[in-house]
Amino acid sequence: MMLGAFAAGMQPAGAGQGGGSPMIGLVMMMMVFAIFYVLIIMPQRKKQKKHQEEVQKLTAGTQIITAGGIVGTVVGFRKDDRLGDLIELKIASNTNIAITKGAVGQILSASDKPLVK
Predict the structure, then answer these.
(1) What CATH number did the domain enclosing 71 receive?
(2) Checking CA distances to 1, which of 14, 39, 47, 76 falls within 20 to 30 Å?
(3) Whether the model pTM is above 0.90
(4) Residues 39 and 72 in one domain
């Protein structure tokens, strides 16, 4: 007999109940995005902007490490029609290379021991 009542329209507990307003789900997703933005995206942008400012202020004699891991001393700057601004690095005696500003990975402080002579 229970089978007849179930088939006649009774539903098990929890089935067919609405999950609330769709606006609640939208608000929750917006809150998650806001938290994600504040905790992850904002600090990364701030760090990237600071790095770009430091690269713009580079002077001859500053030691850097490229994104590829090459350690060198800035000896000059030049412009290239295709590549834009280039930085000339001395990586060994009588060995200079040119890199783009985007290839600067880390700028070593003056208190660090010179790595390239």
Answers:
(1) 2.30.30
(2) 14
(3) no
(4) no
Report pLDDT for 32: 95
Residue 82 sits in which domain range? Answer: 59-107
Report whether pLDDT(112) > 80: no
Q: Would you say residue 22 has pLDDT above 70?
A: yes
How far is residue 40 CA from its own chain's centroid?
A: 9
- Asked if the structure places residue 116 within a domain, the reply is no
pLDDT at residue number 83: 87
Does a structural domain hold residue 82? yes
Same domain, 77 and 92: yes
Q: Which of 98, 72, 69, 95 is nearest to 83 (CA)?
A: 98
- The total of other beta-carbon atoms located within 10 Å of residue 103's CB is 17
The Cα–Cα gap between 61 and 39 comes to 36
- Residue 23: HSE in the Cβ half-sphere, 13 Å Cα cutoff: 1
**pLDDT per position as a tens digit, 61-91:** 999 999 999 999 999 999 988 988 999 999 9
11 inside domain: no
Q: Is residue 114 situated within a structural domain?
A: no
